[in-house]
Amino acid sequence: MSSSAGTYPQQEGHAETNEELYQRFTKLVSSWPCSQALSNYQLYCHHGGWHGSLAPMVGTMVADACFAARPSDVVVATLPKSGTTWIKALLYSTVHRAEHPVGSSDHPFNSLGPHECIKFFEYQLYTGNRVPDLDELPDPRLFATHVPFASLPRSVLASGCKIVYVCRDPKDHLISQWSFANKFRVRDGLEPLSVEAAAGFFCDGVSPFGPYWDHVLGYWRAHLAHPEQVLFFRYEEMSRDPAAHVRRLAEFVGCQFSVEEEEDGVVDAIVKLCSFENMTGLEVTKRGKTELVVGAVENSSFFRRGVVADWVNHLSPETAGRIDAVTEARFRGSGLLTAKSKNKGEIRERGIIAGRWSKEEQSGDLAFILLKLKLQLDDDKLDLWQDHLCILKCLVMTCK
Ligand code: PPS
């Protein structure tokens, strides 16, 4: 992909160079309030809303000004630490399965990480005074972004192109973000943040591309209004039934699996290829790096544990309760908190909070939990194991 050395017309009679465009936006973002908070970078606050570090915010504005979307484009949108790497891998391997069959010795994943296969507007494409020439990319072009719905490049919305959003339980998102930020804080000679301090910033909305709740609600509402344009996945549901999500993803972007492909096990092969276990074993994950505007990041940093409800190992019940209370208050009435379909074979939508506690569970009634497990084991085996394992862990932590 080449970078145009051209100019961007700011207004009639004046052509702004790319460098001037970047300088103008850098000056603007630098004038906004900022705070380090839950990051290893200064996070700038835009219109009292979202928080991002300087270069990606500038890149976002340049993308807004210069990116020309096509209706056939697909944009992956996520908060950081919500399953971006995973959905990029699933989308890329699904869309490109004809020219890159899963299992082929020259599959791109043998030499490129998912972030190289599907690039971020604000971290990779619109960086370093460049306005890339993306016209030469074949259809469908695949892009990614962490920005809130309202800050998407305007042409994305106008073109009607597809958006694939993934959200994650806020507590797991926080723990993943906190671990990631601390790694870089230590590298940069900063004190690591305590998890309680991180949770405090998070609840105040000062987290990368946060507030979390505004980000999720923005895409959720867009999904409700335009389900054919915005697909909404949850990390927890993807973990429960990745194959159903791969099928849904393929259907959404218009490349359904044929009967032959189904019979040949292509869906399961994609799930396996993109699984945490497989991806972490690849040489490119172990030794490769991805160039981002904030610096080169080791590919291994995008993988940590890859499980649902790891928050129980880090958050006290009080802190978890505080985050859940904010989530319940912010998401009440949105439809994001409630459980939906129970039909076999369909993607089942459940509340956004992983390891949700019922009244009995909150009061720590172990007998009730075990009884419920016994009664419902056949029907809801996986869900219950997942949820109740968390609760039991919490009880053990509380008893300690
Ligand atoms: S980033 O930096 O925004 O791209 O990070 P992101 O990929 O959104 O989130 C990283 C978390 O996702 C987990 N992960 C995966 N889970 C399941 N399957 C696969 N293939 C996978 N790849 C990455 C990763 O481990 C991070 O979660 P935590 O909870 O920290 O383990």
From TrEMBL:
Sequence ranges assigned to domain Sulfotransferase in this UniProt record: 71-334
Keywords associated with the record: Transferase
GO molecular function annotation: sulfotransferase activity
Pfam families cross-referenced by the UniProt entry: Sulfotransfer_1 (PF00685)
Gene3D superfamilies noted in UniProt: P-loop containing nucleotide triphosphate hydrolases
EC number: 2.8.2.-
Stored InterPro entries: P-loop_NTPase (IPR027417), Sulfotransferase_dom (IPR000863)
Leading EC class: transferase
Cited PANTHER family: SULFOTRANSFERASE SULT
Family membership: Belongs to the sulfotransferase 1 family.
Record protein name field: Sulfotransferase
Species name: Lolium multiflorum
